[in-house]
Amino acid sequence: MRPRTARAVAAVVALFATATACGSNGGGGGADAQVTVKAAPAGSFPVKVADCTGQETTIAKAPSKIVTSNAAGLEMLLRLGAGDRLIGTGFPPGKGSLPADLAEQGTRVPVLGDRAIPKEKLLGSGADLYVDTFGAMPMMGGGATGPSPEEFAAAGIQHVYLLSTACAGTPKAAKAPRTDLGQIEDDIRRLGAVTGTAARAEELVTGMEKSVGDVRTALAGVPDDKRPTYFVFDFDAGTKQPTAVCGRQVANAVITLAGARNVFADCDADFKPGSWEDVVAKNPDWIQLAVRNRGSEEATRKAYDDAEAFLENFPATQGLKAVQEGHFVRLGSEVTTIAGVRNADAVRQIAATVHPNLVKNGQ
Q: Torsions phi, psi of 261, nearest 5?
């Protein structure tokens, strides 16, 4: 377990976190600007948070009406116990994609946009806090940019970011691949401070660190060059041109912590269009069939079967080592590429599959 685990709630509320713009111990995922989160005694305000450039926002009181841009922020807020304050989301989670204990509450959150929330709808939502996953990049799904700081202020909406995702594509983002979950843990702590749920945030982070720490200990004797190579096949993104999951994506940290080596860790982005020629040249030891939950076990199982059948029958991939040996990891996109608590569960599941003699799933 990392030294950060010992960080107590008292430390969180005195000087909540001091981190680089994309997280504190996040495997080279930081930036030049310093990001701080500062709070008064536990559960009290004001709280100061900063964006990817270091610009600070002061949250004077706990928000009562929160809108989030996508499923990552939505799930974090539900886990923190702030679900009763959620009044809207964009990019809603698909049916079955939230864990069972959060699904009912999650489906009650109004959907303000099937993709990015239209600017006018966001500004007229009545929210006092907007949790943004996308940062300064164009709002996904249409190329339009989000509201300006002046427009947020005029609408009475304070604007905070998930730095683990919003900062990754900015010019200040570090170029090194992400190799741990420190950035996500910092985001959970930030949201805990902002919503007055710091103690719950610390519980969630402690659980993540314990799970990942157990895997790290189990794999300590496996040298880097003996760790298998690994390709995330995003079946739902299309089969004509594969998508490369790159080093700055959270999935790279998940794969690394699980004792594998992402074959596209060296591409400088979150995601990039790839080619089957690139995949063949990498010839991975393991391939993750990363499909989205279809809303039922039967439908999701069929999606995994279809992804596997494609690789087995497509001329370019049927000769790959992983395909020939049946080395497939059936693990959903949501827990691998979307930042959240379940990234730690994904670490264990991948490790238990590729290192079955060293790690047992659920132990």
A: -125, 115
How distant is the alpha carbon of residue 219 from its chain centre? 23
Q: Which two tokens stand for residue 117?
A: 């929330």
- In one letter, which amino acid is 282? K
Please tell me the distance from the alpha carbon of residue 214 to that of residue 43, in angstroms, as a whole number. 31
Query: Shortest CA distance to 153 belongs to which of 121, 187, 130?
Result: 130
User: Which phi and psi angles does 289 have, rounded to 5°?
Assistant: -85, 90
CA dihedral 273, 276, 279, 280 (to 10 degrees): -160
Cα separation, 205 vs 203, in Å, equals 6
Report the DSSP beta bridge partners of residue 19.
Answer: 35
Which DSSP string do the residues of 23-81 spell out, in sequence order?
Answer: BSSSTT---SSEEEEEESSTT-S-EEEE-TT--EEEE-S--SSEEESSHHHHHHHHHTT
Q: What is the dihedral of CA 272, 130, 338, 362, to 10 degrees?
A: 170
- For every residue of 170-197, which 3-state class applies, written as one string? CCCCCCCCCCCCHHHHHHHHHHHHHHCC
How far from the centroid of its chain's Cα atoms is residue 259's Cα?
Answer: 19
Q: 66: which 2 tokens?
A: 């929160």
> What is the Cα–Cα distance from 249 to 241, expressed in whole angstroms?
19
Element (H, E) at 232: strand 229-233
In whole angstroms, what is the distance from residue 216 CA to residue 284 CA? 22
**C-beta contacts of 31-35 below 8 A and 24+ residues apart:** 31/167, 31/170, 31/172, 31/173, 31/174, 32/172, 33/172, 35/163
DSSP state for residue 226 in the 8-state scheme: G
| Residue 54 confidence (pLDDT) | 84
One-letter amino acid identity for 200? R
In this prediction the pTM is 0.85
Q: N- to C-terminal Cα distance for the chain?
A: 16
Average pLDDT per 10 consecutive residues for the chain, totaling 363 residues = 38 33 35 42 80 88 96 95 97 89 95 94 97 64 70 96 78 74 95 96 98 97 97 96 94 98 93 96 98 93 98 98 98 93 97 96 66
